[in-house]
Design a protein that fits this description.
A hairpin with a 2-residue loop joins strand 11 and strand 12. 43% of the residues lie in helices and 17% in strands. The protein has three domains: 79 residues, no CATH class; 63 residues, no CATH class; 195 residues, RecF/RecN/SMC, N-terminal domain (Glutathione S-transferase Yfyf (Class Pi), Chain A, domain 2), CATH 1.20.1050.90. By secondary structure, the protein is α+β, with helices and mostly antiparallel strands.
Length: 369
């Protein structure tokens, strides 16, 4: 896909990714996905696609908006509803995620390296949820229990609750946390192995890329679920007084991190933007391999204007790897960055004003001009 900036290339790729994970990778709320038109009483957004799979086709659809209701929220804004369908039938988000498998490359990916731990946890959660429905369910339940436990800790701090009430929430929190942590540890180990090989190829410098899961408590980031559960339980007991004083849970999957290292040094404080970009490209390509292995089908690759920041050699390596997958969308404002023999097999679209028009291959020269 080619087109000037601001014409809708990223919106199209974001829409495809939303059909994979049931939410935007960038927007902080569904409200941001609905264009407000003050002249219309009802506004909504619809994202839909037909997914061709071996043996069957799926029609995926997400509608967002006030959908015919006029009930405002506390700020006076129309209530935003989300209706999710598979083949026309309503579905819960947990049953929708993973119907389409996708990997998204974007300029915002540098946040995974330089951003807070929450960015790396989100990266892991999105990846694992696409192939492990049990993980997504455990993560959602963990968040609900965490909220209730934090509420109780605030009451304990204020002297309006008994400490023995904490035991019930501890048991529930640990029960959900053990599965979340075990799957994260397993996934980080697999990604580390795959991305190290890809990184050696992309960097061309011999630099070693490595990943390590870092729990928020002094836990051994390995072992069985039960081992992790017992370690987390012990850490929570040791921090009980601190948690009550602060009114919040200070250890658990919601506070864990993934350490990204290049040649043994933590990437966040020491890596250049070029090193970070190569590291995240390696991670995304490893993610595609990991999804393909665990899903038994290839993910759709979405490259949102990331090639322009790479030198010619790295661009070619990324395109060659991406071309190994059945379907890959590449957006760019400079078609020359993806010029080459691989374009002979590509469908080219021009995006202008939110509309896509197919480019006649006979009219497009190899330089994309």
């Amino acid at each position: 896909m080619q087109g000037d900036n601001g014409q809708g290339k990223s919106n199209l790729l974001e829409s495809i990714y939303i059909l994979a994970i049931a939410k935007s990778p960038w927007a902080s709320s569904d409200r941001e996905l609905v264009r407000r038109d003050t002249s219309q009483p009802v506004t909504y957004s619809r994202i839909a696609a037909v997914v061709r799979r071996t043996g069957d086709d799926l029609k995926l659809q997400i509608d967002l908006g006030n959908l015919g209701t006029e009930v405002p929220d506390l700020d006076g804004n129309p209530t935003i509803q989300k209706l999710i369908r598979v083949n026309g039938a309503p579905r819960r988000a947990i049953d929708f995620v993973g119907q389409l498998s996708a990997v998204m490359f974007s300029a915002q990916d540098l946040e995974v390296v330089f951003g807070p731990p929450a960015a790396r946890r989100r990266y892991l959660d999105i990846l694992i949820s696409q192939f492990d429905r049990q993980y997504l369910g455990a993560l959602q339940r963990y968040q609900r229990v965490l909220s209730q436990r934090n509420h109780l800790l605030k009451r304990l701090r204020d002297g309006s609750a008994r400490t023995d009430e904490l035991d019930v929430w501890n048991d529930q929190l640990v029960f959900e946390a053990k599965y979340v942590m075990a799957r994260r540890v397993e996934t980080v180990a697999g990604l580390s192995e795959l991305s190290a090989v890809i990184h050696l190829e992309l960097s061309g410098t011999g630099e070693q890329l490595g990943l390590q899961y870092r729990p928020s408590a002094d836990l051994a980031a390995e072992g069985s679920e039960e081992s992790l559960a017992e370690q987390l339980r012990g850490a929570m007991e040791a921090r009980r007084a601190r948690e009550i004083a602060q009114g919040m849970t200070v250890c658990g999957p919601h506070r864990d991190d993934v350490e990204i290292r290049i040649d043994g040094l933590e990437a966040a404080p020491y890596a250049s933007r070029g090193q970070a970009r190569t590291a995240i490209l390696s991670l995304r390509l490893a993610e595609a391999q990991y999804l393909k292995y665990h899903r038994g089908q290839e993910p759709v690759l979405l490259l949102d204007d990331v090639l322009s920041e790479l030198d010619a050699a790295r661009r070619l390596q990324v395109i060659q790897r991406a071309s190994q997958y059945e379907q890959c969308f590449i957006s760019t404002s400079d078609p020359a960055t993806v010029a080459g023999p691989l374009l002979a097999h590509a469908t080219r679209l021009t995006i202008h004003g939110g509309a896509a028009v197919k480019v006649d291959s006979e009219q497009a020269d190899p330089a994309g001009e």
